[in-house]
UniProtKB/TrEMBL annotation:
InterPro entries, A to Z: PPR_At4g14850-like_plant (IPR046960), PPR_rpt (IPR002885), TPR-like_helical_dom_sf (IPR011990)
Pfam family, one: PPR
Molecular-function annotations in GO: RNA binding
PPR repeats: 82-116
Any Gene Ontology biological process: RNA modification
Organism, as annotated: Panicum miliaceum
The UniProt record lists the keyword Zinc-finger: no
Keyword Lyase applies: no
Signal peptide interval: none
Name used for this protein in its record: Pentatricopeptide repeat-containing protein
Alphabetized UniProt keyword annotations: Repeat, Transit peptide
Annotated TM spans: none
């Protein structure tokens, strides 16, 4: 088998959350775009699409493969995205050069009541560095202000 992660186990293979997590990670490392759809199908077939960890891993795979809309669609289907899900999505967008989209996600994250952690803020700074004229202001607590106007702006 080549390093390209040439094929998934056959449909008769007994999938579970652990094997699916491993397959998602392997495909993401190899940026294997042709595995996004089949792995998503396995996740749905097993009834694991509500798993924040697996859904976030699948969105991460989609972003690594240059499929940001697929990742956003997966994210939008999550019942209650947590800080890890938000951070994965916004940093993935920043790494893909989608800086404004990344900052918009950070704003949505704060507006939704999920408090960014250091990794989230690092992703926001990476995005800010890629946007000409971006200002990430901090006046007192960066999370003060209305839900409509978080302290982060571009």
């Amino acid at each position: 088998m080549s390093r390209s992660c040439a094929s998934l186990p056959s449909p008769s293979t007994a999938w579970d959350a652990t094997s699916l997590a491993g397959a998602l990670k392997a495909a993401a490392v190899r940026r294997s775009a042709h595995h996004v759809g089949p792995l998503h199908a396995v996740l749905v077939k097993l009834g694991l699409s509500a798993s924040a960890i697996l859904a976030t891993s699948l969105a991460h795979l989609a972003l690594r493969c240059g499929l940001p809309q697929y990742a956003r669609d997966l994210f939008d289907e999550m019942p209650r995205p947590d800080v890890v899900s938000w951070t994965s999505l916004l940093t993935g967008h920043a790494h893909q050069g989608l800086h404004r989209e990344s900052l918009a996600l950070l704003r949505r994250m704060v507006g939704s009541g999920v408090e960014p952690n250091g990794h989230s803020l690092s992703g926001g700074l990476l995005a800010c560095a890629g946007v000409s004229g971006c200002t990430c202001s901090r006046e007192g607590n960066p999370f003060q202000g209305s839900q409509d106007e978080p302290a982060w702006s571009n």
